[in-house]
Amino acid sequence: MNIPSIEKAPLHEIKIHQEVRLREALEYVAENSPYYKVLFNREGIDVASIKKLEDLQQLPVTTKEHLQEFNDDFLCVPRTKIVDYTTTSGTSGKPVTFGLTDKDLDRLAYNEAISFICSGVQEGDVVQLMTTIDRRFMAGLAYFLGLRKMGAGVIRVGAGIPELQWDSILKYKPAYLITVPSFLLKLIEYAEAHGIDYNASGIRGAVCIGEPLRNQDFSMNMLSQKITEKWDIKLFSTYASTEMSTAFAECEYQCGGHHHPELIIAEVLDEKNNPVSNGGTGELTVTTLGVEGMPLVRFKTGDIVQLHYEPCQCGRTTMRVGPVIGRTQQMIKYKGTTLYPPAMNDLLNAFSEIEGHIIEISVNDLGTDEILIKAATKTPSEELMLQVKDHFRAKLRVTPKIIFTTPEELGKTMFPPMSRKPVNFIDRRS
After folding, report:
1. Predicted confidence (pLDDT) per residue in 100-137, tens digit
2. pLDDT digits (tens, 9 = 90+) for 51-92
3. Is this model's pTM higher than 0.85 or not?
4. Of 64, 68, 128, 312, which has fewest CB within 10 angstroms of its CB?
5. CA-to-CA distance for 201 and 166, rounded, in angstroms?
6. Contacts 24+ apart (CB under 8 A), 278-287
């Protein structure tokens, strides 16, 4: 497969293409979605009047709360056409079920194939999948379908178990890994303890999910620095969600996730649902294109991002999504400072002695936010505690409460039996 031509087209051609696809998407939901039928009728909206991308502002937004409350009403096809049921992880509320048709799975495969191409994976490469493909998890299935579509080989190992991962790496010689980036540190630790030369393993790169690799200026954050200081591999960041059924993937120049304009329309909105100015930060809001089962119109993802519009050296002219600054639901007001968990995650990753952590947010008697960080270490000391607190004061100008615990004790909370992702943030404010 090659880079789709629309992703190298002039910006005005991309806009025209998206407006044609937008009109098709709105006509489809107006005819087939019980939720949008009621919404458009109640608001007196004639979708035929929505012709330009700018006209999207005439439509109400869709939120996670709408999906949770009216889940079944978003389904646009009879249940007999659903071939796969997927649910969101539920990390930010009640899980939502999505029904995918055969056409939706084809679209998902196409999305992942062009995303992998963006990150350098080629036909004939062998890729080790280090994330679950079960538990109604869309991402694992999407990765498998995309790799199959582009003609790559897949090693479906699943999550965790460094010994099993290395057995497969040494036996099948994959060129790429798909993994949560912090797990790469576990692989390095295991390799060093068992005499495995990981730099001679043949791994060229890792497509990373679930955790940020970059600062806002696209420089490597502390986590990616810790990995690449030891393991000479390329790290590629991807950003996606079940609701979007679309990914934003980094190319070799690693300056944001490239937009696939044939699959999704992206806006960035302020707190009043108005578009931010170019280069401004706000909540990523998306309209899916070509989804048959459960398409969404102006869905607010909850992720605070910045969009970048300069042409990329790779030849793509599409806009790019910068690293996620934080989630709207996870915004913390602490002693006059606005914080998001990713900023604290990066500070804690600076300490090799800390093997994992959980950030807990609660409300004190005064009604303000309180932060408790539980940090796992095998070498707790007063000196380490002072170093961590000094680092927070220097970088964020605040010092949350920090307690040390063992990796084993923290793991009981970080990896609950039914969770598909590690739990790093617990919000007790509600």
Report:
1. 999 999 999 999 999 999 999 999 999 999 988 887 78
2. 999 999 999 999 999 999 999 999 999 999 999 999 886 555
3. no
4. 68
5. 9
6. 278/307, 278/309, 279/306, 279/307, 279/308, 280/306, 281/305, 281/306, 281/325, 283/328, 284/321, 285/61, 286/243, 286/244, 286/246, 287/22, 287/25, 287/56
